[in-house]
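Dear colleagues,

As part of the handover before I leave the project, I'm documenting each prediction I ran so the next person doesn't have to rerun anything. This entry is a single chain, and its sequence is reproduced below.
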Amino acid sequence: MMKIRFSLLLLSSMLLLFGGVGCRKEQAPAESAPTEGTQQEAPAADPLAGWQPRFDPAGAEFTYILSNVDHPAIEGIAVGYHIRDKVWERSNGRLYVDFRPMAQLGGERDVLNKLKLGAVHGMLCSSVAAVNVTDRLGIVNLPFVIDSFDKLEKFRRTPELFKPFSEAALDQGIMVVDFTGYGPYGWATKTPVRSLADARRVNFRVAQAPVNVDIYRAWGLKFTVLPWPDVPQALQTGVIDGLDHTPIVCSITRKFDYAKYFTRLDYAQGLYIHLMNKRWLDRLPADLQTILLTTIEEESARARSLTREQQEREIAAAKQQGIEFFELAPADRQQLMDRTAPVYQQWGDKIGREYLEKVRAALAD
């Protein structure tokens, strides 16, 4: 009897062991897309719970996988969900835009590689990261070129300016479809920066992009290149004293918890550039291509308009929380503009000197 019981116990243990291993093998990797048609109930703490579709995408013939690393509380990111819903409606459920914000598919450099391979079909790429695709996309990061909402809109609506930009990465199989934004750049700092003299005492965090490094070298300011996830700890520990970014992002991502001052430079517009794998698009039926591209254009324009409003709302909210805002004196601002000349020279060779001068002339104040 004891032998029988022992045998049964051993058999049960083996079944549990191999059954458990089998279940683990069937689990999809964290980055894989969910099975079409399945909608698991999001946990209460899920920051994207309120963005779930009100339709079942199970019947879609085609899926457009669209990635981004930021939070849809930013209007320039929420556009992904608006595109999703409008495309679903216009295509009568044939095309599903599977939008994955908040780095669900990886960081920007990782996703850029996936985009080139076609594992990801589209990406709302930050303008500072997009320059790693091709130098010409760096034109939007150059100081005092596209430095206002009005100039940004003129750049987008003028074919001879936007077309060379949109075709800049075609040799890599990537097309620039459109862009949204996250507002104009300035300095969030732990101490007040009312002048260039104040700025020279600050160690600024800049993005991992060559054009930003060249800008701060030309300006003669101290800087440290840091990945975005490292910024909160770096601010708290004093590794950096300031941050090169926009009021919208600093407010929504709570960087104002550590940096209580903001100097409005408005030297460049922060963009989310909508990159798309051209080979994937070419395989899509012509009518769905039209629906997708038209919807992206319409919703991107709407998002840019909403970003203007969000900029004012976030600045007002920050001021209510005690954040102080400053502007440089005209003489200091002019000094920054004068110091940018070597950057125009250096990046003119990379972007295309004739194209850069055409954009600067068309958008000159």
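Residues 286-320 form the longest helix (35 residues). The radius of gyration is 24 Å.

All the best with the project,
I.
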